[in-house]
Amino acid sequence: MTTIVTSATIARPRPFAGKLLHAALEAAERGWPVFPLVPRGKKPAIERWQQRATCDPRRIRRWWTRHPRCNVGISCEPAGLLVLDLDAAHGRVPEPWARRGVAHGRDVLALLAQLAGEPDPVDTFTVVTPRGGEHRYFSRPPESRLRSTVGERGRGLGWHVDTRGPGALVTAPGSLATVHGVPVPYTVTGDLPVAILPGWLVSALTPLPPPPLEAAPPSPLPATSRRVTAYVQAALDAEYRNVATATEGHRHITVFAAAAACGELLGNNWISAAAITQHLTDAARRHLGVADFDRAELSRTIRDGIAKGRKHPRILTDRPAPPRGRARA
User: Phi and psi for 267 in degrees, rounded to 5?
Assistant: First the structure.
């Protein structure tokens, strides 16, 4: 039987097939666990990527044989990496930075180094991103408590300077992005050994320590009755649980709502502002330093919530007396 070969049976060439597999294997050879990202994108293409990222060449070949167009992600935590993600300005530069001649995240980093009296940390493995950004790779010092940051929020370094550390990923060199309809690769421009993160950056990025526990937190103001005392204590316990168990995406609003609820008690002089602050700060200890949530933000959120709640004092009315002639329950 003769097989007729037509254009439909000829496999179309895939210009980047094999290159992405090579990029994944090259990153793994450096000791950086990898996993597939969506084609031309930065989002994980698999679930539980932090647990499944690997340096195993057999698994890597299986992944990219099945999905040859997938980009390559590096899991920063097991790789021991802290990557500075320096973005280019695509639009207006904020005035405080524009006055200093800043037009790129690397300008911000250079300025911060100058203010710290340190050299600009440029001598390390560096990748240029398809849209003009820059990834500088650093090793995290042992026992460091560094976390990922975004811009100036929380313990962030500054405008257009993000960090990719524990719990984060970085797109590996050799991956692709579409820019104006054209595939552009992440390209190594500084093929140097990965440097250890400078001490001044370690200090700048390390979360503040949790507030010290006081021997005895401030006591609520004396209540007018046992009923009010019990009510205040129950309300405090409930808000403590709400804050302590809040999830990351709802943490800010939960703390604010708890402070506002307690502020209503303050509005009727059933508790002091110091007692509310101490109570909620203690409840939120586990959140400090997680995903940019620091003590300054916590204090500000509690203060704002108390201010809102105290405008609406919570007043308990006395229980109505039972009708005459009816036995008390």
Answer: -60, -20
**What are the pLDDT digits (tens) for 34-47?**
999 999 999 999 99
Nearest to 49 by CA among 26, 86, 75: 75
Domain ranges of the chain: 19-205, 226-309
Classified as helix, coil or strand, 290 is strand
Q: How far apart are the first and last CA of the chain?
A: 97
The model's pLDDT over 214-255, given as tens digits with 9 standing for 90+, comes to 544 555 555 557 778 888 888 888 888 888 887 766 777 888
Q: Which two tokens stand for residue 40?
A: 């031309």
Q: Alpha helix (H) ranges present in the chain?
A: 19-29, 49-52, 57-66, 76-79, 95-98, 105-115, 199-205, 226-244, 251-267, 273-283, 295-309
Q: Which CATH class is domain 19-205?
A: alpha beta
Q: Which residues contact 182 (CB under 8 A, 6 or more apart)?
A: none
